[in-house]
Amino acid sequence: MSKEAEPARPDKELDLSNAGRGVWLVKVPKYIANKWEKAPGNIEVGKLKISKQVGQKAQVSLTLSEAVINIDPSEAIPREHKLDVSVVTKQTLGVFSHSVPAAVAKEEPTPEGEKLFMEGRIVQRLECRPLGDNAYMKMKLESIRKASQPARQVKSLEKIVHNFKPVSDHKHNIEDKERKKAEGKKSRDDKNAVLDMLFNAFEKHQYYNIKDLVKITRQPISYLKEILKEVCDYNMKNPHKNMWELKKEYRHYKDDDKKEENKDNSDSDSD
What we know:
Blueprint: E1 14-15, E2 22-27, H1 30-38, E3 46-51, E4 59-64, H2 66-69, E5 80-87, E6 94-99, H3 102-106, E7 115-130, H4 134-148, H5 171-184, H6 191-204, H7 210-217, H8 221-231, E8 232-234, E9 244-246, H9 254-270
Parallel strand pairs: 1-7, 2-7
Antiparallel strand pairs: 3-4, 4-5, 5-7, 6-7, 8-9
């Protein structure tokens, strides 16, 4: 069975008009990234300042705008930051963009309407670090305080709260356990009643193991063994090893009757 051939996708052209432009790859702390993600697209998020002196490395600093700082006043973050600059030498990194026309984006996007651009080649990496001022120390203390708070807290309730909790065990499981528990606790019957059950069983078979006798009489095994020792012999040798049979004085089998009858006849013949 052959698979249906997927429709051929036309090759997209890559716009390389900005391939020669150098760009920066900047790594910012998570708290700045969170603020920028919440910021609307029409505000200034900060100012970048580059100062360079002869014979020295350029100094780059970032100052966040007041609008970004006030996005969530409860989350205070430092405003002043410095950026450590490093030159990218052993890697070739680029920045690419993907654009879809607005008219096409409203409907189903088609490959023909999409465009790819190379925005530039990364020439420097910058890592944004906060200054160790009071604002940064307050932020760290607050983060440590929040991290030290337990995930679960004990609270006093002023009124009854009705919650639907999962059932630890279902009704039919409980009933089944109770039934098995009741069956496990076997009560002792009258000794004569137990003897009747044993004699009836040994009329059917000559040998029994203890498990079968427990099932037949439904008596505790210790109590049953006491009665068995009175009327039965326990075989220690093969072929009926570990089996119980009635003592000779309690046996009444057809073979035994024939033996007794043959013995009587032999005695009479001798006379």
